[in-house]
Amino acid sequence: MKNNLDSLLGSFRFAFTGLMHTIAHERNMRVHIVAMIYVLLFSVFYNLSTAEHGMLYIVIAMVLITELFNTSIEAIVNLLSPKYSQFAKIAKDTAAASVLIAAIASVAVGICLFADVKVLHEIWLYFTQSIIRIVLLGLSVIIAVFFILSDIKK
Asked: Of the listed 26, 67, 74, 122, which one is catalytic?
């Protein structure tokens, strides 16, 4: 029983290590994470149905998963083809294209879910009616920019 539990915990540890590696080494993953955080925070202002929440979580996961696959494909290609190769370029470009398509799909879903002028106005009022909220939002944006642009891998 202990070996099965150790094996299961090891699997989670490996997966977490892969996620942390991607966050540390891939700026675009940090962009996706920041976008995810803001989308989830601002989604509180909307009266989304269970199905709409589900769609939101699916497209967020889709973007993160394709970024993880892109990173793993790039690593494999770099290992197998350290010198320039047209085939390596095609593999990397195609993997990057999958992330682009997932991101475009997530933006389309976001527009469908969040393009409500009344709610956007409510969000605007929520922040502009309190200097503390404006400052906190501004600080969060500054922290997000530093997180995205930071060189975490060191």
From this structure: 67
Tell me which DSSP letter residue 83 carries: S
Rounded to the nearest angstrom, the gap between the alpha carbon of residue 39 and the centroid of all alpha carbons in its chain is 10
Q: Is 47 helix (H, G, I), strand (E, B) or coil?
A: coil
Terminal alpha carbon distance of the chain: 38
The pTM is what? 0.90
Q: Note whether 122 and 45 are within 8 A (CB).
A: yes
The per-residue pLDDT for range 7-50, each reduced to its tens digit, is 888 899 999 999 999 999 999 999 999 999 999 999 999 999 99
Query: 81 is written with which tokens?
Result: 């083809």
Residue 104's Cβ-side half-sphere holds a number of Cα atoms within 13 Å equal to 6
Mention every residue, 6+ apart, whose C-beta is less than 8 A from residue 138: none
- Do 137 and 127 meet the contact criterion of CB atoms below 8 Å apart? yes
The type of residue at 75 is A
In angstroms, the Cα distances linking 38 to 3, 11, 80, 95, 124 are 40, 30, 38, 26, 14
Active site residue 122: no
The three-class DSSP label of residue 115 is coil
